[in-house]
Amino acid sequence: MNAIAGIEASVPPSGTGCVECLAGGGWWLHLRRCAQCGHIGCCDTSPAQHATAHARATGHPVIRSFEPGENWFFDYPSSSFIDGPDLEPPAHHPLDQTVPGPASRVPKDWQRQLH
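Now predict its structure.
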């Protein structure tokens, strides 16, 4: 596969949860991985939308799902799904991690807080 701008396949993910939510006491619905630097952020349905905020702040154009069973890439500049290479493992958050998560921070009315 040819190199794709904004994808660095050898960079590992930054962790198992949204970097900013973990640091600030927040929670997420689904996780997304920056395909360039490995930053893990929360999806646009999550209250804080950190994955898209990271892309805007850094100019990193491509994310990949960090959910089990999902291997899609999304290119922000074209607003489209694209094909991409296998990325440095792990490919998703731990299977025992709750969705939404982390379990201890998810409010009882979490569904009302989604975008």
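The chain has two helices and five strands.
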